[in-house]
Amino acid sequence: MLLKSRCEPYELMVMRILDTRAGLTNSERFQYLNLERGYEGELKFDALTEILGEEIFIINDLLLKVNNSYFQIDSVFITQGGIHLLDIKNFQGSCYLESDKLYSVTTEREYKNPIDQLKRSAALFRQLLQSHKQNYLVDPSVIFINPEFTLYQTPLDQPIILPTQINQFFTKLNKTASKLNEDHKKLAQTLLSLHQTKNPYTTLPDYQYEQLQMGVYCNRCKSFLVTIHKFDFVCKKCEEHERIEKAILRNVQEFSLLFPEQKITTNSIYEWCKADLNKRTIRRVLKRHYTSLGNTSNTYYE
Ligand SMILES: [Zn+2]
Fold it and tell me: Which top CATH class is 2-194?
């Protein structure tokens, strides 16, 4: 039973917009593409969990805090037999493990070892359970989701689930009898209530309003070469059509995501969209989808 579904990570959403509107440096782009790939892997994993029965609680994307340490767990499965902490990695290509370090075979580049990260999370998670007087078996695993991934020299005692073992992992979970009771429910509720919505250690590039490219861009190919035709924005590059109303809303969301402290007003969105739009059109869309606040000469939307 799915208790908490996954949302697109804030960091990814911002990076995606910055990539289109500001351009990223090489290392920022590398970070951005890693986030895209990671999220893609998590969604692939989520699709697999749909076969699991009702007697397993699934909590995705849990951000927890113990003392002053934050840690994030991609998926938590609560079963009668214990708690699975799962970290999902969408690595591609061939890697090898050597003295607890992870290297790419082709580039010799060293990666952050996901097993170390997971062990840290598991230790913190156990600490958290203890402080809430909950006594459960905690079983952490790193799941390598990408079928194009090979890991050489994998020690048998490592908490690793390789692409070829994923089916077996799910089959086994489904076959193991699990009966959840009130205590499990309470545990799930406790974990959900401890979820942190904002990670203060999120690293984002600095950005300023003035540095960003204003305007509406194509939802498909991200080109700013769009024109208005009747009720649609039409991309000159890929011919994608998007309803004007939908495009305006998409832009409002971007604006408020990047600048949460700025008010959404007809003027601010007009300037942000920088398109051949009537202010009245923008006002109408905002009125329809948001609540208007303030007085007539000073209306803003939330
Ligand atoms: Zn396009």
Answer: alpha beta
